[in-house]
Amino acid sequence: MSKKILVVAGDGIGPEIVAEAMKVLQALQADGSIDVSIEDALIGGAAYDAAGDPLPAETLEAAKASDAVLLGAVGGPKWEPLHISKRPEKGLLGLRAGLGLFANLRPAILYPQLADASTLKPEVVAGLDIMIVRELTGGIYFGQPRGIETLPSGERKGVNTLVYTESEVDRICRVAFDIAMKRGKKVCSVDKANVLECTEMWREVAVKAVADYPEIELSHMYVDNAAMQLVRAPKQFDVMVTTNMFGDILSDCAAMLTGSIGMLPSASLNADGQGMYEPIHGSAPDIAGRGVANPLATILSVAMMLRYSLDAPAAAERIEKAVSQVLDQGLRTADIMSEGMRQVGTAEMGDAVVAA
Ligand code: NAI
Ligand code: MG
């Protein structure tokens, strides 16, 4: 049956990189590898300019009716003066909440061809391939009570609360275990169980859930040690699963081990396997409109979409192999350029992936 994809390109380089991802989708469609119908809709600053709302109701409805959403990026200096409720980021947050996307998958992959892009020694990071599974709709970013209150003394008190229910922990752990089953079958659950009771419970729930996955090797690590280990010896990890805040921090750290923001895709999934797929970078207003942005993170986001929401793992693998092949050919956008390689623009890179 034909699957539905909603494309929301957004702002800045969003439309440029999404155009290249569309070429890849269309090529797979043309040769019969996938059967999809593709619609597009407005989001972010572009939606605010056209409709006065960064997440028009039609966009949210269309997203709910689709199997997967492909997002470019939102935001830019033009919309910074707006009130927070009208800012482009609101469009992104509204989609996450509206679709109930509780599982954020952030791979950190360093293609061997780009090992010198990292600030770490090539032998520490070359061939790095880890997946961080971050809980996205709970934890301290959403827990109640929260806020800033003024005490009778006049001093202010700031409060945020770390909250997880057992079912929230169970479902995110199972997402991590399912993913690990298709990879190295190793999961490291990251917590602060020595200090925070909430994450002591997290650890217990993870142990209980893994009983249903006899092949998974589950380990536990305190978050401070996990940060250290990510920088010291990142290749020890296969899949990491953790809370919203710890995952926010660790996934950015892991991404930067690879040194190339233009190369990293991401996925956010809900309980029905519906997902939103996007590069981890933003709208890059500093290079927008010049045709120089790296489209590979968005193209690799399409591969994740095919794997996790559209049940087309073979097509996903073809995209990933094609990306590796264009790197082998020495093609580089400016952000990953190094000596002896051939610098290409956004469209040329997209065309090369299609050809490969
Ligand atoms: P950014 O990720 O847009 O850019 C950071 C740096 O990386 C810039 O120098 C940019 O030119 C470069 N870069 C990013 N993507 C690239 C690509 N594909 N190819 C080559 N170079 C690339 O982050 P920044 O500058 O902090 O934010 C810019 C705007 O994007 C802001 O309005 C911010 O709110 C928004 N943003 C949106 C996100 C999203 O839509 N998911 C995520 C992060 C930021
Ligand atoms: Mg972050």
UniProtKB/TrEMBL annotation:
Any Gene Ontology biological process: L-leucine biosynthetic process
SUPFAM superfamilies cross-referenced by the UniProt entry: Isocitrate/Isopropylmalate dehydrogenase-like
One GO CC term, this protein: cytosol
Pfam families on file: Iso_dh (PF00180)
E.C. no: 1.1.1.85
Domain Isopropylmalate dehydrogenase-like: start-end pairs: 4-353
Pathway(s) annotated for this protein in UniProt: Amino-acid biosynthesis; L-leucine biosynthesis; L-leucine from 3-methyl-2-oxobutanoate: step 3/4
Catalytic activity: (2R,3S)-3-isopropylmalate + NAD(+) = 4-methyl-2-oxopentanoate + CO2 + NADH
Residue numbers binding substrate: R96, R106, R134, D224
Record HAMAP family: LeuB_type1
Similarity comment text for this entry: Belongs to the isocitrate and isopropylmalate dehydrogenases family. LeuB type 1 subfamily.
Annotated protein name in UniProt: 3-isopropylmalate dehydrogenase
Gene source species: Thiorhodococcus mannitoliphagus
